[in-house]
Design a protein that fits this description.
This protein is of the alpha/beta class. The protein folds into 3 domains: about 5-220, Rossmann fold (3-Layer(aba) Sandwich); about 230-320, Tyrosyl-Transfer RNA Synthetase, CATH 1.10.240.10; about 330-409, RNA-binding S4 domain (Structural Genomics Hypothetical 15.5 Kd Protein In mrcA-pckA Intergenic Region, Chain A, Roll), CATH 3.10.290.10. The protein has helices at about 5-10, 20-25, 50-60, 90-105, 120-125, 130-135, 140-145, 150-155, 165, 170-185, 195-210, 245-255, 260-270, 275-280, 285-305, 305-320, 335-340, 345-350, 355-365; strands at about 15, 30-35, 65-70, 115-120, 185-190, 215-220, 230, 235, 330-335, 370, 375, 390-395, 400-409. The strands form 3 sheets. The chain has a 6-stranded mixed β-sheet, with helices on both faces. Helix 4 (about 90-105) links the parallel strand 3 and strand 4. It is globular and about 75 Å long.
């Protein structure tokens, strides 16, 4: 099948510059890129959709480019922001870039140049400012730029918009021009919030090179109720296992809304549409099975199959009536002599199930605190040595948030 048809059927196409033109371009091998600015130490689950879009493009015979924004991160993308991003140092950006690049490269095959990876700092940081203004800036209309939502929203709210941020669109457009000139890149893929920036790059290529180029934007990852996905009580769902352990990552997908399961299976897994249709053909217990498949597949792509199997085994041990290995679930070591002096409040805070003793008190008062699956009503109740079972203490906050205290000594 044509890659455009594949992407459309799976829900990746939110908008494109010209559906017929994009489809025609993809009848022959096409080079397409997606960029990620390393503004955090890790990618998060919102990045999964554009990454999977690149992966599917490659599976359909095209060449994806993973562009790391080591240069544009020095400026800061104003898209979707009501205030300026914090200015990062080059060292911070380089550290973030190293970890993000490793995470993103899991999604594609980079052997024999089947996919490329680049860092826009390699060309943006070498630009001559006056030459850039004359050669690139002359093709941008300030009047038109001010109509773009990324700038208009900030100005309408009378929020500060720095000249630094105003340059971001020019730099992103130049990225695409550079990739077109050096490796023949004729398509940019991005989230829908990047639409205006992508159009600027396409227009620049057409003006300076007289070449055809197209934009293919994915939907943002939101729930059926319209809320952005990827937030938990602990914060964002990261792809870095140190920030979001594979077990917690797995559980996030197990617990998604029933209405989102089929769409997420299409976007975030490599299962065929026939398999997905069969998984989602019923509700109730059958749909819970589909959620577990979703969690296993996404965890396997992001963290590898062994991590997915461990997370699945831990979930089976907790929610499947036993028979599984729960060593992969979040755990903390604690000496027996230390545990003996703890109250329930101490344990909940130490395990990270509650951010403070006040939060732990509220959880207990609401009947949501458990030790070894037994509800505990007294927040000051001492744990003591008697709660240790098979060398551990199992804590639970609410219905599904678990933590193991592994006892030593």
């Amino acid at each position: 099948m044509n890659a455009f048809d594949v992407l459309s059927e799976r829900g990746f196409v939110f908008q494109s510059t010209d559906p017929a033109g994009v489809r025609q371009m993809l009848t022959s091998p096409t080079t397409a890129y997606t960029g990620f600015d390393p503004t955090a130490a890790s990618l998060h689950c919102g990045h999964l959709v554009p990454l999977m879009q690149l992966a599917w493009l490659q599976r359909c015979g095209n060449r994806p480019i993973l562009l790391c924004g080591g240069g544009t991160a020095l400026v800061g993308d104003p898209s979707g922001k009501t205030s300026s991003r914090p200015i990062l140092t080059r060292d911070e950006i380089n550290a973030n870039l190293a970890s993000q690049r490793q995470q993103a490269m899991r999604f594609m095959d980079f052997e024999a140049d089947r996919a490329l990876v680049a860092n826009n700092a390699d060309w943006l940081c070498e630009l001559n400012y006056i030459d850039f203004l004359r050669d690139i800036g002359a093709h941008f209309s300030v009047n038109q730029m001010l109509t773009a939502e990324i700038y208009r929203t900030r100005l309408d709210a009378d929020e500060h918009l720095s000249f630094l941020e105003f340059n971001y669109q020019l730099l992103q457009a130049y990225d695409w021009l550079h990739l077109y000139r050096t490796v023949g890149c004729t398509m940019q893929c991005a989230g829908s919030d990047q639409w205006a920036n992508c159009l600027a790059g396409m227009d620049l290529i057409r003006r300076l090179e007289g070449a055809e180029a197209h934009v293919l934007c994915t939907p943002l990852l939101v729930t059926a109720s319209g809320q952005k996905m990827g937030k938990t009580e602990k914060g964002a769902v990261w792809l870095d296992p140190e920030l979001t352990p594979p077990y917690e990552f797995f559980q996030y997908w197990v617990n998604v809304d029933d209405r989102d399961v089929e769409r997420l299976l299409k976007l975030l897994t490599f299962l065929s549409l026939a398999q997905i249709g069969e998984l989602c053909s019923a509700d109730g217990a059958a749909l819970r099975d589909a959620k577990r498949v979703l969690a296993y597949e996404v965890t396997g792509i992001v963290h590898g199959q062994p991590a997915a199997e461990e997370a699945q085994a831990a979930a089976q041990a907790l929610f499947g009536g036993g028979g599984g290995d729960r060593s992969a679930m979040p755990s903390t070591g604690v000496a027996l002599v230390e545990l003996a002096g703890w109250s329930l409040l101490d344990a909940l805070v130490h395990a990270g199930l509650c951010a403070s003793r006040g939060e732990a008190r509220r959880l207990t008062a609401q009947g949501g605190a458990y030790v070894n699956e037994a509800r505990v009503a007294d927040p000051e109740a001492p744990l003591g040595e008697g709660v240790v079972q098979d060398g551990e203490v199992l804590l639970r906050a609410g219905k599904k948030r678990y933590h193991r205290l592994v006892v030593t000594g």
